[in-house]
Design goal:
Layout lengths: L20 H13 L20 H4 L3 H14 L6 H14 L3 E5 L2 H11 L7 E5 L5 H4 L7 E5 L10 H5 L6 E7 L8 H5 L5 E4 L7 E2 L10 E5 L13 E5 L2 H11 L20 H10 L3 H17 L15 E2 L5 E4 L3 H10 L28 H9 E4 L7 H19 L1
Parallel strand pairs: 2-3, 2-4, 4-5, 5-7
Antiparallel strand pairs: 1-8, 6-9, 7-8, 10-11
Helix pairs in contact: 3-10, 4-10, 5-9, 11-14, 12-14
């Protein structure tokens, strides 16, 4: 990672600008007073990866092997019994009536939007602080992405940020449950516009209103290998309780046809593989346990004193996030990243360039500023998160983070 253009200020001024003056002073004092969990010049006992996808699935190896063998023996590789079974099981898990398995999370977004009636001339509201696919999926429907700002604490859109960009052409809102947090779907729907949940990072998250997948008109999931529920390749799904949306989505994913004889739409060839469905079926019963492990990792970071070093993620009201990414904030994330990397600790800045500033999306750039988006893009950094991240690893991360920021202030 590069170094900032301007030299870093003293530690007491590295707090983020949205804090109050008193709170800033208190946190700065805590940063100076909190001792590192281990000597600052020591590397972690073992490297701490950004993701650990192998440890949670290691105990499932025999079941996974058996599931793969079952598919190979069946010689049913496309739209067979494993896909049908997973679709039913995942719909039940989400608290919805239907799941339509598709090839990946990006296809899921485009197909779901079209199934919701989005088309040429429409506008779809979407955040700019998100993975590119959240917006990339909109133009193929013929609609225009309209970028809105986010809440600086939850990183999610709100009813207020959506209301600011609504027009008579708004057909839908893509509410991204970013990093496993929850956007306020009901409040956004109260504006009178359908909501598509982009729940790619939120499998396992719960709330007082239900799980992602059952909060809006429809929801989309990615089963990319690093996701909370990941397959061993690409995979995705559309979840909905709307019978009409489910029927149209299933047709669109199957060449716009019900029977491969009569083609009613210009659709897609987007299918969840039998092998991937079988693998997902083995893992799905363990998703809640893994989600609890992610929440325990959050608690371990807090117990280790990370809040005295950087800004921690903030759960949305009523949500119990299954943190897919654990994204912290500080004024000098490049120095933090360099220090963590040198200590053998995984980290990554995901969205330094907001989507509306990406070359392909500049023609859709808003004419109003998105201040919370810009601030989040500049100050965020993802640090290690997994269902098996324990107290010792958390202490190592905290010690390395504190040493990195202390060195930046020296």
């Amino acid at each position: 990672m590069g170094t900032p253009t301007n030299p870093p200020p003293p530690v007491t001024s590295t707090c983020l600008s949205w804090r109050s003056t008193t709170e800033t002073a208190n946190v700065a004092t805590a940063r100076l007073a909190a001792p590192p969990a281990r000597p600052a010049n020591l590397s972690p006992r073992v490297p701490v990866p950004l993701f650990d996808t192998s440890s949670p699935t290691a105990p499932l190896r025999a079941e996974l092997d058996a599931a793969i063998a079952r598919v190979l023996d069946s010689e049913r590789f496309i739209l067979g019994p494993e896909v049908r079974a997973f679709e039913g099981e995942f719909a039940a898990y989400c608290g919805a009536r239907h799941t339509v398995g598709v090839a990946n999370g990006t296809d899921a977004l485009t197909i779901a939007l079209r199934a919701m009636g989005v088309g040429p001339g429409d506008e779809v509201v979407v955040p700019s602080f998100t993975f590119y696919a959240s917006a990339e999926a909109i133009p193929p429907t013929g609609a225009t992405p309209v970028f809105c700002d986010i809440d600086p604490d939850s990183f999610c859109i709100t009813a207020e940020t959506v209301r600011a960009v609504l027009t008579p052409r708004t057909k839908a809102v893509v509410a991204v449950h970013l990093f496993g947090n929850l956007a306020p779907v009901a409040e956004i729907e109260a504006l009178g516009v359908p909501v598509l949940e982009d729940a790619a990072q939120a499998a396992g998250t719960t709330s007082e209103s239900g799980r992602p997948g059952a909060l809006g008109t429809a929801a989309t999931f990615s089963f990319f290998p690093s996701k909370n529920l990941g397959c061993f390749g690409d995979g995705g799904a559309i979840v909905t309780s709307d019978d009409g949306v489910a029927e149209r989505a299933r047709m669109l994913a199957f060449h716009g046809s019900r029977d491969k004889v009569t083609f009613e739409h210009v659709g897609y060839n987007s299918r969840l593989d039998e092998l991937q469905a079988a693998i997902l079926r083995v893992q799905l019963p363990h998703l809640d346990q893994w989600a609890d492990g992610r929440r325990a990792a959050d608690e371990a970071y807090r117990a280790a004193g990370l809040a005295a070093v950087v800004e921690l993620p903030v759960a949305a009201d009523g949500a119990r996030p299954a943190w897919h990414l654990y994204v912290v904030r500080c004024e000098y994330p490049d120095q933090l990243a360099e220090g963590l990397t040198s200590a053998g600790i995984g980290n990554k800045a995901y969205y330094r360039t907001p989507v509306h500033r990406q070359p392909a999306m500049r023609r859709f750039a808003p004419d109003r500023p998105l201040p919370a988006t810009d601030q989040a893009a500049r100050t965020h950094l993802a640090i290690p998160m997994s269902p098996v991240l324990g107290a010792e690893q958390a202490r190592d991360v905290v010690a390395a983070a504190q040493a990195a920021l202390a060195a930046a202030a020296a």
